[in-house]
């Protein structure tokens, strides 16, 4: 299985199965930033 974030890769044929959504949390220091 190949997971990509684009809908075109030169020279490769693949089938689009669906759209994936999500979210991320980025923090320099987990404890300090949330207190």
Question: What features would you highlight for this structure?
Answer:
35 residues; 0% strand; little secondary structure; Heavy metal-binding domain-containing protein; UPF0145_dom_sf; 14% helix; UPF0145_YbjQ-like
Distance between the termini: 40 Å
Order of helices and strands: H
Q: Can you summarize the main beta sheet? A: none
As a percent range, the share of helical residues equals 10-25%
The Rg value, from CA coordinates, equals 17 Å
| Proportion of residues in β-strands | under 5%
- Supply the helix-strand structural class: little secondary structure
In short:
InterPro entries: UPF0145_dom_sf, UPF0145_YbjQ-like. This protein has 35 residues and is largely without helices or strands.
Walk me through the structure.
There is one protein chain. The protein is built from 1 helix and no strands. The chain is largely without helices or strands. The protein is elongated. The termini are far apart. Belongs to the UPF0145 family. It holds the Pfam family YbjQ_1.
SSE diagram, text form:
Blueprint: H1 30-34
């Amino acid at each position: 299985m190949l997971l990509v974030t684009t809908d075109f890769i030169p020279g490769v044929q693949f089938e689009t199965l669906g759209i994936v959504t999500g979210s991320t949390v980025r923090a320099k220091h987990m404890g300090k930033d949330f207190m």
